[in-house]
Design a protein that fits this description.
P-loop_NTPase, actin-binding, mainly alpha, about 350 residues, Kinesin_motor_dom_sf, Methane Monooxygenase Hydroxylase, Chain G, domain 1, Alpha-Beta Plaits, elongated, actin filament binding, three-stranded antiparallel sheet, Myosin_head_motor_dom-like
């Protein structure tokens, strides 16, 4: 119920993770249809970039304002920090405080005086600014770092490299918010270079009991995790897509016109193959480089037909080999019988 600086930076990290989830699953999903020239109706989804910018903008974000207050000479306290936020984000639709609510003639007694509220993707969260500046400074006195570096213990020396007198910097040490922001940026860079697969864990009940399912709790988590938009995009789009060449190589055995060899282009082969299988037109779409199949049911039917055809081909190979082996053995026996009969006669 009482959220401070620690919960603020944790929620900032969650917001960045949700942003990469949106970009890599929802936005790229829809952009792929545009790249492939597939006609479909785009699905609206909430892009939380505006919330990330509210927190991390280098010049006018909440973290930047917090660092500015920590470095400002004179009397510095959380009240001046909150006043600056109220002036800067007076019209921001994802920020509110007691002062901004009064300016908008909104009466909300749930918002305390020394607090501000952010409308995150997962809902509204109220933060108490008490302790923000002290926790953000995260000052480690220079003489303490030097004392630790001068220790004979190798681990302590490695933990305080800034204590080396030859590396003493007159610059102020980085704030906790700045360090956390840099760590999140490195994490995002690492994730963007990968091909992620998501596993979303849903808590079915608050009592950690088996076979207990609370629909309201599950629905809230599904909404907060952005899974509803993801399902809508998937249902509006196509469940399966694959490049023409591997698709044709896997399923060309299902059509006599493409099996065993197809002389044309891979796209033409895929079109001929699926035309022979007589699937409805609305189930299929042919992009510039990929074939798209709308429902999993069609894909399962393709796999079922392929398995049946593989069995038929295996039987054909076995039948041909057994016939060759028996024919060869018979011819050898016949040749031997003639030779024995001739010598006997």
């Amino acid at each position: 119920q009482d959220n401070g600086f620690e919960q603020f930076i944790i929620n900032y990290c969650n917001e960045k993770l949700q942003q990469i989830f949106i970009l890599m699953t929802l936005k790229e999903e829809q952009e792929e249809y545009v790249r492939e020239g597939i006609q479909w109706t785009p699905v609206e989804f909430f892009d939380n970039t505006i919330i990330c910018n509210l927190i991390e903008n280098n010049t006018s974000g909440i973290l930047a304002m917090l660092d500015e207050e920590c470095l400002r000479p004179g009397v510095v306290n959380e009240d001046t920090f909150l006043t600056k936020l109220n002036q800067l984000f007076a019209s921001h639709k994802h920020y509110e405080s007691r002062e901004t609510q009064n300016a908008r003639h909104i009466m909300d007694t749930s918002l305390a005086p020394r607090s501000f509220r952010i409308r995150h993707y997962a809902g509204k969260v109220t933060y108490n600014v008490t302790g923000f500046i002290e926790k953000n400074n995260d000052l480690l006195f220079r003489d303490l770092s030097q004392a630790m570096w001068a220790s004979r213990h190798s681990l302590l020396r490695s933990l305080f490299p800034e204590g080396d007198p030859q590396k003493v910097s007159l610059k102020l040490p980085p704030t906790a918010g700045f360090q956390f922001k840099s760590s999140v940026a490195m994490l995002m860079k690492n994730l963007y270079s990968k091909n992620p697969n998501y596993i979303r864990c849903i808590k079915p009940n608050d009592t950690k009991s088996a076979m207990v399912f609370t629909p309201e709790l599950v629905l809230a988590q599904i909404r907060y995790l952005g899974l509803l938009e993801n399902v809508r995009v998937r249902r509006a789009g196509y469940a399966f897509r694959q490049l023409y060449e591997p698709f044709l190589q896997r399923y060309k055995m299902l059509s006599p016109r493409t099996w065993p060899h197809w002389a044309g282009s891979d796209r033409e082969g895929a079109e001929v193959l699926l035309a022979d299988l007589a699937y409805p037109d609305e189930e299929l779409a042919f992009g510039h480089t990929k074939v798209f199949i709308r429902s999993p049911r069609t894909l399962f039917d393709l796999e079922r037909r392929r398995q049946e055809r593989v069995v038929q081909l295996v039987i054909l190979i076995q039948k041909t080999f057994r016939g060759w082996r028996c024919r060869t053995q018979y011819q050898l026996m016949r040749k031997s019988q003639i030779l024995i009969s001739a010598w006997f006669r």
